[in-house]
Amino acid sequence: MTQLLVKLEKWQRNLIVLWIGCFIAGIGFSEIAPFLSLYVGELGNFSKGQLTIYSGLTYAITFLVVAVVSPIWGRLADRRGRKLMLLRSSLGMAIIIAACGFVHNIWSLLILRFLQGLCAGYIPNASALIATESPKEKSGTVLGILTTSYVSGNLIGPVLGGLLAQIFSIRITFVLTGILLLIVFFLSLFFVHENFKPTTTTNQKVNHVSTLSQLKNPKTIIVLLFSTMIIQMGNNSITPIISLYVKELMHGIGPITIAAGIIAALPGLSTLIAAPRLGQLGDRKGNGKVLIFGFLFAIIMYFPQGLVTSVWMLGILRFMIGISDGALFPTIQTILSKESPPTLTGTVFSWNQSFQALGSMFGSLFGGIIPNFFDYNGVFVFTAISLLINFIIVLLFLPELRFHAKKKS
């Protein structure tokens, strides 16, 4: 393995190592999700209402911190290098997630989940490093390939985490996850290369407004960040209701939890298949065209999800949503990298992570509230309408993606 890496070009070696790193990071971030609420229940004698509130806080606090601190880490990445941020994130996450296995009260867990948010940033910094270190003509392809890494990790993580918790214990699973992330730290330390050139002192002292003024097309950046939030909001809106919706479609009979798990995993599977191919298509035909396709395809696939009458129909439509994700997320990252000067790529990608974290928060919130007024199908209709509005905004404010997709992207 080591000899193979040495023979490759530096950007190819980075891609392989960071693919492995993001894959393991994706597993680490997602494998504790299925049993986190169960772990909260082990930390005290809570009522049902208290357990729900504390579980919600445990999930939400990490996303909230990520949204707030990501721009700070992004600016530091532009000053000190993205590799340093990879090391900070992977080592910090390894220590903190492992420590979660040793807590004995909810407040200690909440503090660690807060610190986990502070240590986030491995995947966006890996994307920024790949975007700046790879040939520009291959950026869409390599970012599409990199997308498959953390999507695959997120796909495998919940299943692996459930198995580890069943075989060992929840506490041991936290420790094993920390060990996995420690491996990511050493891979990044020894095998990732960055040809980093620090920015000048003048450029270091910037705020968000002055940073936007340094961008060639700040309007494009703003619209794409907003799009990231809406797309992620749609992805997360089904999370609070997926098991309940599947139960309703199966009339409460059969292996409901298994079916819900499969339904939840299907978008990740199709994203894994579609993202590299759509990234290559964007490099050939224009990223704007792929972005427009992704929006239209998602809108068409979301509307009927609230009207299905069987779990099989829902599964097919959820699989299709993964294809739209494979078009949207890596294409947005590709355009962001091309519209950002190398000295600000880390900052822009950190903004993107902040908006993605906000999308995760809003999606979970709306997914829990809307069914109280419009039943489960209201979630899918709301998501489709949100994406439709987003699509119209893209067409209105970024006409260059529509008319000159190849030239501008």
From TrEMBL:
Location comes to: Cell membrane
Name all Major facilitator superfamily (MFS) profile domain ranges: 14-402
Asked if Cell membrane is a keyword of the record, the answer is: yes
PROSITE patterns hit by this protein:
MFS (PS50850)
Q: Does the keyword Cell membrane apply?
A: yes
Tell me which InterPro entries the record gives: MFS, MFS_dom, MFS_sugar_transport-like, MFS_trans_sf, Tet-R_TetA/multi-R_MdtG-like
Membrane-spanning ranges: 16-39, 51-73, 85-104, 142-164, 170-192, 221-246, 252-275, 287-305, 311-336, 380-398
Keywords, alphabetical: Cell membrane, Membrane, Transmembrane, Transmembrane helix, Transport
Gene Ontology cellular-component terms for this entry are: plasma membrane
Q: List the membrane topology term(s).
A: Multi-pass membrane protein
Q: Note the superkingdom of the native organism.
A: Bacteria
Major localization class: membrane
- GO MF entries: transmembrane transporter activity
Q: What is this protein called?
A: MFS family major facilitator transporter, multidrug cation symporter MdtG
